[in-house]
Amino acid sequence: MALHFERSEFDARRDRLMIEMADKKLDALLLFAQESMYWLTGYDTFGFCFFQCLVVKADGSMVLLTRSADLRQARHTSVIDNIVLWTDRYGANPAIDLRNLLNDLDLLGKRIGVEYDTHGLTAFNGRRLDEQLQTFGQIADASGIVNRLRLFKSPAEVAKAEKAASLSDDALDAALPLIKQGGDEAAILAAMQGTILAGGGDYPANEFIIGSGADALLCRYKAGRRKLNKNDQLTLEWAGVFHHYHAPMMRTVLTGKVSKRHQELFEAAEAALTAVEKAMTPDNTFGDVFDAHAKALEAHGLTKHRLNACGYSVGARFSPSWMDMPMFYQGNPEPIAPNMTLFAHMIIMDSETETAMTLGRTYLTTETQPKPLSRHDLDLIVR
What we know:
By secondary structure, the chain is an alpha+beta fold. The strands form two sheets. Strands 7, 8, 9, 10, 11, 12, 13 and 14 form an eight-stranded antiparallel β-sheet that branches. A six-stranded mixed β-sheet has the order 4-3-2-1-5-6, sandwiched between helices. The protein is about 35% helix and about 20% strand. Helix 4 crosses helix 5 (about 125-135) and helix 9 runs antiparallel to helix 10. The chain has ten helices and 14 strands.
């Protein structure tokens, strides 16, 4: 079996989930998020683009409802013993198959939690699910249960994150010699992703961000490549990935001369990230971390050039995004606690002068100050 953790690790996760289910008086939990299935059982697939559901009962027993294409996938990558298939055919409604399965599991009239907030359950399928369950039992939105359990990393998970961070560093090392006048974004991107894969890593849950010139102000991937000029700016956001665990980094790298505006924005970004590190302690909340970032940039007169979030939790994620919850934004009451892996990014985009500056890396929280997982320093990179 292609398991990336010991069986005892999965048993401990199941036991933690059973405690949460008992606390919320749930007789069963319907999991649709691929991250939840992977965390709980090791099940590794992109088949969540179709309807599938992992049913977890209060006694810890589990049944996976999926398609034939994922039968062997589940057997090979997970600890799931009981797998039921729904059949692809014209007019198929797998929500009916799920209702029948729940009936077979003696869950009629019981309190059932549903993981609605996930890309693994489209609005279309969610409506079909509700149609089948509205008279079946007591249905509750249980979207955040496994997400919050996943927020706190075990020692085995921390080891995965540390390996991912090492791959992130390797990717930056591979990119730097190619960042120069005439350097091709395509070659830079290929070197970074190739280095991670060659190092035993995986594809990321979303595309790497790469953009130079005016495109350096973008915070998302887009199609199209260009070559760097003598005095240019290149924004990169990437993640080393190991067994689906992500450790993102973000930098804006300059070629040629450093403009006065670039220097100003870098100093502000560095000050903001330093403030965030000081706030990323167990006596603060995710909202406090965002406030530290906002105040630092306000002191530099950059409020209108910043974003309304400055990072988020990271871990094992699947497409379409490596971003996890909770996020650093205003008023978020979630407490900082030890053994979280958190990505903090300082993103300053001055559209008036078309000047970009970013600075970000992944941290492991501790009882005191967070531990950066990158071996790279925070100096401005000029090629």
